[in-house]
């Protein structure tokens, strides 16, 4: 299981300072959608330069113009870009095709998806990597739980989990062995981000 640090609702300097601080604990750096909207692809380019050894994910949340936006992310240095599961099949297909041509990866964000059939249909379309996601707004009323993991049960898909993950919620998540655990505010808003990230990394490592 890999640890992905999500950089959301942060300014440029704080994004770089947080990655510098936590770089030994994290495997994947995620440039969040709002940060990309604020600073454009330049922050992806500069993060690539500053941290060449980490896997870099651009959370583009593509929902149209798949070829163009996937190319933008990969040209800026991202290894992985995201496309929304609710995007038209043609858009998802365009992004998968760009990723395959460039030796990169697409993660399909399952935000809003609540039926296993939808996930199975994505797999039939050629999707191999999905992100289970409890959105920031939904987190006010719901918590991460078994229901989300049921969406991918038996599909064999590579899976990430995101949405309010903290040290406290790890016991709910770890038994499902997702390939990637995405943590944003659980680290970025912690009093000591480095310690929080190290703690999470150790818990992941000791879970087997
Ligand atoms: O994709 C996202 C928001 O759309 C976030 O990256 C994801 O939800 C992780 O952040 P947090 O742990 O703060 O919920």
From TrEMBL:
Entries under SUPFAM superfamilies matching the protein: Ribulose-phoshate binding barrel
Protein's gene: hxlA
The name this protein goes by in its record: 3-hexulose-6-phosphate synthase
UniProt-recorded Gene Ontology molecular function terms: 3-dehydro-L-gulonate-6-phosphate decarboxylase activity; hexulose-6-phosphate synthase activity; orotidine-5'-phosphate decarboxylase activity
Family classification: Belongs to the HPS/KGPDC family. HPS subfamily.
Enzyme class: lyase
InterPro entries for this protein: 3-hexulose-6-phosphate_synth, Aldolase_TIM, HPS/KGPDC, OMPdeCOase_dom, RibuloseP-bd_barrel
Superkingdom of this protein's organism: Bacteria
Catalytic activity: D-ribulose 5-phosphate + formaldehyde = D-arabino-hex-3-ulose 6-phosphate
Pfam hit, one: OMPdecase
Pathway(s) served: One-carbon metabolism; formaldehyde assimilation via RuMP pathway; D-fructose 6-phosphate from D-ribulose 5-phosphate and formaldehyde: step 1/2
Segment forming the signal sequence: none
EC number: 4.1.2.43
Entry keywords, A to Z: Carbohydrate metabolism, Lyase, One-carbon metabolism
Protein species of origin: Shouchella clausii
Gene Ontology terms describing biological process: 'de novo' pyrimidine nucleobase biosynthetic process; formaldehyde assimilation via ribulose monophosphate cycle; L-ascorbic acid catabolic process; one-carbon metabolic process
Domain (Orotidine 5'-phosphate decarboxylase): residue spans on this chain: 2-200
């Amino acid at each position: 299981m890999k640890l992905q640090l999500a950089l959301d609702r942060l300014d440029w300097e704080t994004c770089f300072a947080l990655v510098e601080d936590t770089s030994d604990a994290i495997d994947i750096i995620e440039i969040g959608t709002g940060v990309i909207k604020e600073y454009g692809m330049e922050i992806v380019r500069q993060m690539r330069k500053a941290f060449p050894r980490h896997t870099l994910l651009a959370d583009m949340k593509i929902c149209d113009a798949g070829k163009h936006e996937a190319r933008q992310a990969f040209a800026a240095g991202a290894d992985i870009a995201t496309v929304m599961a609710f995007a038209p099949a043609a858009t998802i297909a365009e992004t998968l095709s760009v990723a395959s041509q460039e030796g990169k990866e697409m993660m399909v964000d399952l935000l809003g998806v609540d039926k296993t059939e939808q996930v199975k249909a994505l797999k039939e379309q050629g999707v191999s990597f999905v992100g289970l996601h409890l959105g920031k707004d939904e987190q006010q009323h719901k918590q991460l739980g078994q229901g989300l993991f049921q969406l991918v049960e038996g599909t064999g898909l590579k899976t990430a989990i995101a949405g309010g993950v903290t040290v406290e919620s790890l016991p709910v998540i770890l038994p499902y062995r997702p390939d990637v655990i995405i943590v944003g505010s659980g680290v970025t808003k912690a009093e000591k981000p480095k310690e929080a990230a190290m703690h999470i990394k150790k818990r992941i490592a000791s879970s087997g």
